[in-house]
Write a structure and sequence with these properties.
This protein is α/β, with parallel strands linked by helices. It has helices at about 45-55, 75-90, 110-125, 140-160, and strands at about 25-30, 35-40, 55-60, 70, 95-100, 125-135, 160-170, 175-180. The strands form 2 sheets. It has a 4-stranded mixed β-sheet. Strands 5-6-8-7 form a 4-stranded mixed β-sheet, with helices on one face. Helix 3 (about 110-125) crosses helix 4. One of its GO terms (molecular function) is translation initiation factor activity.
């Protein structure tokens, strides 16, 4: 039996703007293409003003009282709004929490690999959760796990400026800490 999945609708980068005859308000506040306030006019008067200039009347803020419209070339206006949205989307970075797992018996080579990974994550702006999992008889000696985390922190601190967001704490059979850039 075939399973059908609904495709997610792709939302446009900019909201939908009403233009010219699609504007439903009776009275509107009109702005020029430079952003100057021209005053409150009836919709027919505002449309006539836009036609005289040979450009469109675009509803900027429909929720205002009266709604705000701008006399501007719609294709250029839409391009500028999409450009702003793309730039804003490119500048956003969601900080993730990346996980690094160590053990009490970790070797020097493995520790340097984890150090490089952690530094890479921190340079990207992510937080790093350092975990030491205690197994068997290690559970009775949690102090060693705290020492491993502090040693790891000191190794990373030589190259990058970091601090603990969450100090090392014991939770069940794990000792965890969260490291961030200062």
């Amino acid at each position: 039996m075939r399973i059908s999945r609904k495709k997610k609708s792709i939302q446009p980068l900019i909201p939908h703007f009403r233009i010219n005859d699609k504007i439903r308000a009776e009275e509107v506040r009109v702005l020029s293409d430079q952003g100057d306030n021209l005053g409150v006019f009836s919709i027919t008067e505002a449309l006539r003003m836009a036609e005289e200039q040979g450009i469109d009347l675009v509803e900027i803020n429909p929720k205002a009282d009266p709604p705000i419209v701008k006399i501007v070339d719609f294709s250029h206006f839409k391009y500028q709004k999409e450009k702003e949205a793309r730039k804003q989307k490119a500048n956003t970075h969601v900080t993730d929490i990346k996980g690094i797992r160590l053990s009490i018996r970790i070797g020097v080579g493995d520790l340097t690999i984890r150090q490089k990974q952690t530094e890479k994550f921190l340079k990207r702006g992510d937080k790093v959760k350092v975990e030491v999992i205690l197994r068997g008889r290690e559970k009775g000696n949690a102090a060693l796990a705290f020492d491993v985390i502090r040693k790891f922190f000191a190794l990373i601190e030589e190259n990058t400026n970091i601090k603990f967001e969450q100090e090392p704490t014991k939770q069940g059979n794990k000792v965890t800490a969260i490291i961030i850039n200062k």
